[in-house]
Amino acid sequence: MVVLHAASVPTRDQALYRHVIQALPALGVAVFVYDRRGSGKSGGILADSDYDVLADDGIAAQRMLARDARIDPKRIGFWGLSQGGWLSLLAAARNPETAFAISISAPMTTPDVQMNFAVANILRIKGYSEADVAMAVAARTAVDDFERGRLDRASAQARLDAVVGKPWFDLTYLGKTFQDPDKSRWAKEIRHDPLRTLASVHAPALVIYGANDPWVPARLSAEILRKNASRHPNIDTAVIAGADHDMMLSAPLEFQIDPKAFSAQAPDAPEYFSLMAAWLTAKGFARTP
Q1: pTM score of the predicted model
Q2: What's the pLDDT tens digit per position in 16-46?
Q3: Which residues are CB-neighbours of 195 under 8 A, at least 6 positions away?
Q4: Can you tell me the distance from the alpha carbon of 90 to that of 78, in angstroms, rounded to the nearest whole number?
Q5: What are the structural domains, with CATH classification, of the chain?
Q6: ∠ at Cα 96 (92, 98), nearest 5°?
Q7: Is the dihedral of CA 205, 210, 216, 222 positive or negative?
Q8: Sign of CA pseudo-dihedral 195, 197, 202, 208
Q9: Cα Rg for the chain, rounded, in angstroms?
Q10: Helices 111-125 and 130-147, packing angle to 10 deg
Q11: I need a labelling partner for 81 at 20 to 30 A (CA). Which of 11, 146, 211, 265 fits?
């Protein structure tokens, strides 16, 4: 199983990946984790990449493993959480040789919709008013509309300038200005449509959400998948009660949204562990000890 990276967890030594490294080999599943391009010991420049490039990096690892005599080349799949969940499905869509894909906490909305949801929750957790939430989302939407070609630069900049001095501005994941669409990595990212990706995923796939995820619209995403279930009979969906974005059960909300805590966050929900192991076993990719 090739691990694909969450946006803020780029290196193989992060706590997030420890559980698959420790648990799955005992079930007969080898786990390969690498440093994302531009991080750790990997070369390349992240800013020059997009989701297709990052998915292709995972496919390159998949093809490398297929040449390893210890690995069954017909049984290699992907696992990813958050952005890595999008990438696991995208890699499966881009390479028909993929055996399976496991996607954790990856919304079935575009990235701009997901980030508006997240920023709104972050401000609420920090105690700001609904008026503040509306202003923050409006500023983000204006920038996104510019990057999509729906709004002129002057209008988008004016809406952004209106919130730059707010005490919560640093929580919006916005800069004080923005790049033109042809130079903006975000402009590429927001064009990623997970549902379009699913149409090309033919391998068995497991998509898991935490019901208490402050970063991702989990309920909406699960509902979208269920409405489209007849089109994607190869995809299984589960929502774990009480779990958050990283499949943690007891982490305080402030910890969940704190960028300084990202490197320490790791799953601890027993249902998540058992569900993934049971699914891999049922699909024939893992074995009971």
Answers
A1: 0.95
A2: 999 999 999 999 999 999 999 999 999 999 9
A3: 108, 224, 228
A4: 10
A5: 2-109+194-282 (3.40.50.1820), 111-188 (no CATH)
A6: 55
A7: positive
A8: negative
A9: 19
A10: 160
A11: 146
